[in-house]
């Protein structure tokens, strides 16, 4: 990684953290859903992020997508959930663990194979016993007989690098994860699911060292695949690593810009609402501003209590009750329950 890209990456991550983007409600969940949806999309799934959310959270399937596509997404989510819990234990990564990980990635879509080398099941994460190529006319991956030993050597080197890495060197952490991704997908241990499992391992290593996981969007597919091909043909892994850094920088910039735009839009909305309260109910501007702050606090919650308003804003109980009563009278909030257990929620606009 060039020093220029190191500096850009570091500055963007610092800005991302300072803005508190990852601290927004459900950010981690939706970020993960996006990673999963795009990883399967690279392998041919057409499931959208919204459809994936409904599938994961509500169990609602889409009639527009095949069951295989939807099972691909469900399996990958299970694999991520399992991997994220396991990687935090900082245990050695072994061939057996990679097989287990692959079995979760391919649990419902993996096929059974009967080859000259023997029978094996992709659904069980078993290593391939046949030779494969990268598409019609593409390069051949290593002979299946070499895979077990090569995979064991990979795990040994990976664990060595994990132990030696400086956990404060963010750029080094990303380089390690991209190296692991490239090496695993190049070994190509399985008949299917190599890309998904390699991207999963990359993300798990990033999660282990508490850096923001890298997305590979479906829009990145051509550039991403070409970088893999060029690195193999030229025997130069830096091509792939540089590509992944560029993509990560590009996505960080997009996330930051989107967040800043959202904040700006909310500020405009708050000013409009403040002026509405001042004009319609002759409330003094500084009091209207406090009311708008309360409405913003309530917006992403099912319900709030007077005590929560007191704690969050530092109001007295009397002041908090007055604001909540006025906002209810003005039609912005709804009150539920009696005096002792009263809660307030944003009024539904039916």
Topology:
Elements: H1 3-18, H2 27-42, H3 49-58, H4 67-87, H5 95-105, E1 112-115, E2 118-121, H6 147-164, H7 170-187, H8 194-208, H9 221-234, H10 237-281, H11 285-299, H12 306-313, H13 317-329, E3 333-336, E4 343-346
Could you characterize what this model shows?
A hairpin with a 6-residue loop joins strand 3 (333-336) and strand 4 (343-346). This protein has two domains: 3-257, Fic-like fold, CATH 1.10.3290; 283-346, Winged helix-like DNA-binding domain superfamily/Winged helix DNA-binding domain (Arc Repressor Mutant, subunit A, Orthogonal Bundle), CATH 1.10.10. It has helices at 3-18, 27-42, 49-58, 67-87, 95-105, 147-164, 170-187, 194-208, 221-234, 237-281, 285-299, 306-313, 317-329; strands spanning 112-115, 118-121, 333-336, 343-346. The strands form two sheets. A two-stranded antiparallel sheet has the order 1-2. It is mainly α. Helix 2 (27-42) packs across helix 4 (67-87), helix 7 packs antiparallel against helix 8 and helix 12 crosses helix 13.
Provide the number of structural domains.
2
Which consecutive residue ranges, at least 5 long each, have pLDDT under 50? Answer: none
Strand content: under 5%
- Look at the helices and sheets and give the structural class: mainly alpha
Report the major sheet: 2 strands, antiparallel
Give the C-alpha Rg.
Answer: 25 Å
Query: Which superfamily, in CATH terms, is the homologous superfamily of the largest domain?
Result: Fido-like domain
CATH class group of the largest domain: Mainly Alpha
Order of helices and strands: HHHHHEEHHHHHHHHEE
Average pLDDT taken over every residue: 92
Count of helical stretches: 13
CATH architecture of the largest domain: Orthogonal Bundle
- The CATH topology of the largest domain turns out to be Fic-like fold
Spatial gap, N to C terminus: 54 Å
Shape: elongated
